[in-house]
Design brief:
The chain has about 750 residues and is mostly beta strands. It has a domain of about 200 residues: Immunoglobulin-like (Sandwich). It is built from 4 helices and 40 strands. It starts with a helix and ends with a strand.
Length: about 750
């Protein structure tokens, strides 16, 4: 533990963490409009002719040492209600643009697009992104921790694009009521990022080193107002919803259950930078279905939060701990039990302090016997140096009306966590990291209930070096977090080097090796006889090589060595079953190799292939083959089909009925198809078909979404689950949901 601590402290105090912006000299002077602006993508209003033009963008990739070859011209203006932005995006030659579809929140790397990055607080850490692809599909998101984009954040704004064969024009209007900013401030951080797939050129107005995302706020320029933007007014949004649905479970012979419900959210701006979210009887039917995955792991998998109530300023709550040591994970709340009501306060108190405060009350669930719980979270963040901060968090899960019957069913009356953390982000973003100390409070557990987590990363154009260390106590409990295993120490070093190809005409942009390790050591360092811990001893060493092509295709090859000493019996063929298992205390060693190729996104036909082969638990073998193909009739229709095949053979296991070893294996498929129709940038139809042989389920999910006004939607969702052997129906549901975003 001492070495990671010393390394983090050395980085924190030895770096030059001054507050001067790197791109301070990149300034755009914005002036108030003197004539009306109509959002039609034509830029024929007189006001646009009077605006300063931001041009001469800098190339980010394939090289970041010269101006962009593809010309972009951007302009800003404003009135009392809107911030207006426009961009003329010239192409290298006459021809069609390249986009996936008209669907919102598109993938940046697969579309000709332009993003506007705004950072009103000038803290180089928090901001917003608004963008569009060449066909007019919108994308927006909130930026936290200086470089992390949450694309699920959604708000009200309008945009329009036009295309004439040689250039596409974007015009947008962002209501000041959709932004959070401090009154009286006449300068905002700002940058503009563009991707042109035909030439595979990514560029930005203020230069960004190619090893970083173009949204990295450390490299924003400045939007200079002729006078401070209009002072934020009282901003209250009411977002009611109503739904009707029918559910029926066929395997249980139950009658269909008709569901009708209503509720809503409210967003109240308590100050220009502090927002209060309220919810009563929320419903999350609009959330996309989770794509199923093959799981041969001994621990649960992580799925990101998508529900709107939890998204604004989510980094305040979610930045604590590491990937497997998260003290707070909002997806724990309201899944398996209904949320009755909740409140969430988040934002900036002043230039240096941010706050997150959450309280949610859930009801009982008769089916799962889950009791009623109240969830409270307090998070505070204090900025230090240029972009770093010190933060703390308190998490409380408290049972309501908790009785002996709840204890007998294995539920705890309370669970609490306290966290203190330092987040490191250097001025140039080359050094990042964190150091966290966490303690849990649970009934009857008073020892070994601490968790420590530290990480440091050094990232330049050629070097990517990182080290992660965690120690999780055996009695550390985080029932509102994501801590899939306990009682271990984790070491995660990594190092990579990138060679950039300078030869003109080479199909490669870059290539280079990487090495990384994942080492878990049980705290007790021996297999206990009386108890089965949730951890084990395991080591994975990976050596790989990456190739990145000018077409944006990628090819990776890896070889890996694994060793696992099990601290609990485990079924390596199907972890959800107990028919066969490898014994607790047994050690397993294997090697494997894998390769992955992803084709260029600029082609209408795209594909990706991935394979892995090697030895496995119990001296067996495992072959995994994965492939995905897709075709788009841009911009309206996209079709994709993927399949994963696993073949596990000759695993030495023990049957539950006896203690004699036997050889066992299995083969199973995971097949997924997606059919996307985007009739316009307001009307979408998405259908998923998923066949998961591992869990014996066939799923069909079809959703129509009509965005009839900004951030206001009508959803129709149909879902079926079938038995794979005869396609007999397990359950079926259909839901119609309406919501409306009403600004008071």
């Amino acid at each position: 533990m001492k070495k990671p601590l010393l390394l983090l402290l050395f980085c924190a105090f030895s770096l030059r963490l001054t507050a001067q912006k790197i791109n301070e000299n990149y300034q755009y002077h914005i002036h108030k409009a003197t004539s009306e602006i109509k959002i039609d993508g034509k830029l024929d209003e007189a006001q646009w002719q009077r605006c300063q033009i931001a041009t001469d963008f800098w190339m980010i990739t394939p090289a970041d040492t010269s101006r962009a070859n593809i010309k972009t011209e951007a302009m800003f203006t404003y009135d009392d209600t809107f911030l207006y932005f426009s961009a003329v995006n010239f192409q290298a030659s006459q021809g069609p643009y390249i986009v996936e579809s008209l669907k919102r929140d598109f993938n940046f790397g697969r579309n000709d697009n332009l993003w506007l990055i705004l950072e009103p607080f000038n803290d180089l850490t928090n901001g917003w992104m608004f963008g569009s692809n060449a066909a007019g599909a919108q994308a927006d998101g909130q930026i936290g921790e200086g470089t992390n984009l949450n694309p699920n954040w959604d708000n009200r704004w309008t945009s329009q694009t036009t295309f004439d064969g040689s250039k596409w024009i974007l015009e947008m209007a962002i209501p000041f009521s959709s932004l959070r900013y401090k009154a009286g401030v006449g300068q905002w951080g700002m940058n503009i990022s563009r991707l042109d797939l035909r030439t595979n050129e990514k560029s930005s107005w203020a230069p960004v080193p190619r090893q970083f995302f173009s949204i990295t706020l450390a490299y924003t320029g400045t939007l200079v107002w002729d006078k401070p933007p209009p002072a934020p007014k009282t901003n209250i949004s009411i977002i009611p919803f109503a739904l009707a649905g029918l559910n029926k479970k066929f395997t249980k012979g139950e009658k269909g259950v008709f569901r009708k419900d209503f509720g809503g959210d409210a967003k109240i701006a308590l100050s220009p930078s502090l927002n209060l979210d309220l919810t009563v009887n929320p419903d999350f039917s609009q959330v996309d279905v989770d794509q199923q995955v093959t799981n041969l792991n001994r621990f649960e998998l992580f799925f990101p939060e998508r529900r709107q109530f939890f998204l604004e300023n989510s980094d305040i709550f979610n930045s604590f701990g590491g990937e497997e040591t998260r003290p707070f994970f909002s997806r724990r709340i309201g899944l398996g039990t209904p949320i009755l009501y909740g409140a969430r306060l988040s934002g900036k108190l002043d230039d240096n302090w941010r706050i997150g405060l959450l309280n949610i009350q859930t009801g009982k669930d008769a089916t799962t016997a889950l009791p009623s719980y109240n969830y409270s979270v307090l998070a505070l963040q204090r900025k230090v140096f240029a972009r770093s901060n010190v933060s703390m968090m308190l998490v409380n899960k408290e049972g309501i009306g908790f009785g002996d019957d709840n204890r007998q069913k294995g539920f705890n009356p309370y669970n609490r966590n306290a966290v203190l953390q330092y987040n490191l982000a250097s001025k140039s973003n080359k050094w990042t990291g964190k150091l966290a100390v966490m303690k849990s409070f649970s009934p009857g557990l008073k020892t070994d209930d601490f968790t420590y987590h530290g990480a440091v990363v050094y990232n330049t154009q050629t070097w990517d070096i990182g080290l992660t260390y965690s120690r999780v106590g055996e009695n550390f409990r985080s029932e509102t977090g994501f801590v899939p295993r306990r009682g271990y120490q984790y070491y995660g070093p990594r190092i990579g080097y990138t060679y950039y190809v300078k030869k003109t005409g080479s199909p490669l942009i870059s290539h280079g090796p990487k090495a990384l390790s994942f080492v878990y050591v049980n705290n007790q360092r021996e297999v206990p006889v009386a108890v089965s811990l949730s951890s084990d001893n395991s080591t994975t060493h990976v050596l790989g090589y990456n190739f990145t092509f000018r077409s944006r295709a990628t090819w990776d090859i890896f070889t890996a060595y694994d060793y696992i000493l099990l601290y609990a019996a485990f079924n390596p063929i199907n972890p959800s079953l107990r028919d066969f298992y490898v014994k607790k205390g047994s050690g397993h060693t294997w090697t494997s190799w894998s390769t992955s190729f992803v084709s260029s996104p600029r082609n209408l036909f795209t594909y990706a292939v991935n394979s892995r082969y090697g030895t496995y638990f119990g001296n067996g073998t495992r072959l995994r083959l994965n492939a995905q193909v897709g075709y788009r009739f841009q911009p309206f229709v996209g079709i994709s089909l993927s399949g994963e095949y696993n073949d596990i053979r000759n695993v030495k296991v023990f049957a539950t009925a006896n203690d004699q070893p036997t050889l066992a294996g299995t083969r199973f498929w995971l097949i997924q198809s997606k059919f996307d129709v985007t009739f316009s940038n307001k009307l979408f139809w998405t259908t998923y078909f998923q066949y998961n042989e591992q869990v014996q389920n066939v799923n069909l999910n079809s959703r129509v979404q009509w965005r009839y006004k900004p951030a206001s939607d009508l959803f129709l969702v149909y879902s079926d689950n079938y038995l794979p052997e005869n396609l007999g129906i397990k359950d079926r549901s259909i839901v119609l949901k309406w919501n409306y975003w009403w600004n008071i």
